[in-house]
Every structure is written in structure tokens, then in C-alpha cells.
Give the backbone structure.
Amino acid sequence: MTARAATRPLGTVTRGTTNPNRLRRMDRWIAATHGAELRRASDPVAIDLGYGAAPWTAVELLTRLRAAAPRARVVGIEIEPERVAAARPYEREGLTFRHGGFEIPVPGRPVLIRAANVLRQYDEGEVAAVWERLRARLAPASGGSRGGLLVEGTCDEIGRRHVWVALGPEGPRTVTFATRLGSLDRPSDLAERLPKALIHRNVPGEPVHAFLRDFDRAWAAAAPYASYGARQRWLRAVRDLTTDWPVTDSPARWRQGEVTLAWTALAPRT
């Protein structure tokens, strides 16, 4: 047995909850914003970390990434051996499954690590160390490349509401809120899907609380646009937010029910 095989994977077993299309919003964003890095990489490997009791999210990630980067490969990694065995029949060209955890047991440096609904069960104090370990496994920045991307966040069971943090080798970059607009009562409904690094900071005095408060106010002010549909109301509310908050994306992404901000604007106060 090799030293790698004898090493116990890092992390704990998740509940394994998964559903087809659960991560479609996150995948769509990754393909749009990170597709160029995947296309230019010599070995465009993407990791689906903690894919759960069924391999649907890894299968779908390969399909969606290849629409943007035809040479992309996906490796699904699970800490529970039985889940890896159950996924193996779904392997095909460009898609494999491995037993492992936060150590990311693949050769080389991945261009993407997606960790969706993985840190939900961890303590807030453990997040920074996990982020650091995963970032250290990313492809480094070089030349015109910003390096690999870690996307870590949380969504509901059927993928209507997501919030995720995007991190590069250098640290956190952005926070994205994404939703099915027809299901939204107010933007602060997304608070229940904040990633572990932020969910306990949704209290007065913290930036994420102030942002959601302002988003709700902008949403209320945009109520007259509701007669044109939820999308037009969202577009107006996000446009108003740009006056006071560093929104980093454009109306093309807002139309998808998304808004992305610089991490520094929402980072917890120490």
C-alpha cells in the first residue's frame, strides 16, 4: 500500500444530499467567468469535491464546463468509499471518481475546485484553514493567468437559491448571490444560504447584514418594476445597489438572477 493510499482523507462525511440540476446556477456562473482559464490551461482539471450520495453534480459539471472548455476534465472526490463505488459506473471519457477529501488526491494542480454544501456542517472557525488548504492545491497564477479557482458555497435542495465565495490562490475574491427570481419574496431570503464563513455574521454591525438590508430596501423601491416581471425588478434593485456597494458584474449576469460583489465589501469584521 502506498503512503497516499494509507493516509486517511481529510474532512468528515457529509449528509450526501444531492439532486439533479441542484448546482446549475453555480455551474453556469463558473462556465461564464472561469471558462477562459479552463480553455487556456494545458490540463484543465476540475474537481467536484463532496459530490454526495449520487454522482449527478459531477456528471452535470462536465457537460456544462465542456460547453465553455471542450478539453475540461472532472474528477469527483468523496470521503465516503461507498459513494465512490456507486459513482464508478458513471465514469466516462473526461469523468472519474476518487476517494479523498480536502487533500485533493489528484496529480498536479486543478484549475477549478467546486465545494458546494461541503462546509455547512463545519464550525465557522474551521473555514479559513480549509480554504487555505484548498487554495494551496489550485493552479498558480502565471503570465496572463490568475490561476485556479475555488468556488465554495451553499444552496437549497433544488437549486433555487445559492450563495458562494470565489477564491483564487491569493485568497477570497468575490461573493455571488443567485436565485430563481420567481421564487423570491425579498433578497434577504438568501440569508439562509450564506456560506459558513458568512452565515453567522448576518447580524447588525456586520457588512453582510448591512448589504442584505440595503438590498431589501432597493427591492422595495423597485416594486413598480414588478409589473414588468421579477427580472426587471431585480435589475433595477441591483442597479441601485451599485451606488453604495462594489458590484463587480454586469447586467448580463444580473439578468440570470445573480449579483456578485467584491469579497472585501462583505468580509466579516474581526
